[in-house]
């Protein structure tokens, strides 16, 4: 089964991607994983990407797409995959469609994790990170009365990218870039929305229920 997972920051894509891919015995493929593998492996594409990453710039589409093409061509992705973090925009989606068509393949389904903005802001802005062990706690979801890590005694702080104003900006970027992508897949008749609120296991159940008709 060939799946793309989309959703706003804080929707739980990484967590759900892991569960779904494991259930279906297909590789979970994220652009972050691909970048790290190419950079650590010293590939030509990795060297190109590292130049941009070291400057804090976005890796250009052509480099990202070339890496994704190579990864999808590996043996473990022959019977299916779950893409998390790619495509991020309509041009990338169109290119992915062409790549798969070259292999006489197509996407089976695009799962959109649906969660409203207020919930995203609450999830992300409520996170606190331990300055010693790196564990993430949440002011609403974890039973804590202080700013001390229960695991190691370190101090809990709010990362800059978890601050409310930054989260709101990330949401605006997501809406600008990805709303057209969601519509693109809706027009392809392969988009299925999943309610991403509530316990993680409930969201997983909804996703697997949506996939069941496609399982062989």
TrEMBL record:
Keyword DNA-binding part of the UniProt annotation: no
Q: Where is this region: NMP?
A: 30-59
Record's subcellular location: Cytoplasm
Query: Superkingdom of this entry's organism?
Result: Bacteria
Principal subcellular localisation of the protein:
cytoplasm
Give residues annotated as binding Zn(2+). 130, 133, 149, 152
This protein's record includes keyword Transferase: yes
Q: What protein family does this chain belong to?
A: Belongs to the adenylate kinase family.
Question: What is this protein called in UniProt?
Answer: Adenylate kinase
What gene is behind this protein?
adk
């Amino acid at each position: 089964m060939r799946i793309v997972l989309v959703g706003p920051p804080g929707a739980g894509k990484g967590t759900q991607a892991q569960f779904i891919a494991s259930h279906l015995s297909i590789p979970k493929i994220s652009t972050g994983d691909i970048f790290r593998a190419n950079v650590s492996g010293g590939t030509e594409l990795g060297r190109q990407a590292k130049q941009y990453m070291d400057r804090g710039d976005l890796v250009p589409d052509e480099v990202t797409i070339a890496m994704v093409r190579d990864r999808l061509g590996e043996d473990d992705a022959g019977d299916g995959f779950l893409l998390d973090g790619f495509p991020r925009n309509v041009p990338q989606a169109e290119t992915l469609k062409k790549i798969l068509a070259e292999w006489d393949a197509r996407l089976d389904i695009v799962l959109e994790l649906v969660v409203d903005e207020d919930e995203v802001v609450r999830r992300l802005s409520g996170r606190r990170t331990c300055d010693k062990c790196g564990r993430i706690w949440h002011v609403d979801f974890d039973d804590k009365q202080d700013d001390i890590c229960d695991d190691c005694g370190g101090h809990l702080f709010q990362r800059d990218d978890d601050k409310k104003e930054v989260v709101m900006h990330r949401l605006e970027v997501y809406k600008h870039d990805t709303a057209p992508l969601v519509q693109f897949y809706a027009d392809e008749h392969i988009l299925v929305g999943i309610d991403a609120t509530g316990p993680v296991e409930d969201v997983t159940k909804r996703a697997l229920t949506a996939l069941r008709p496609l399982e062989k």
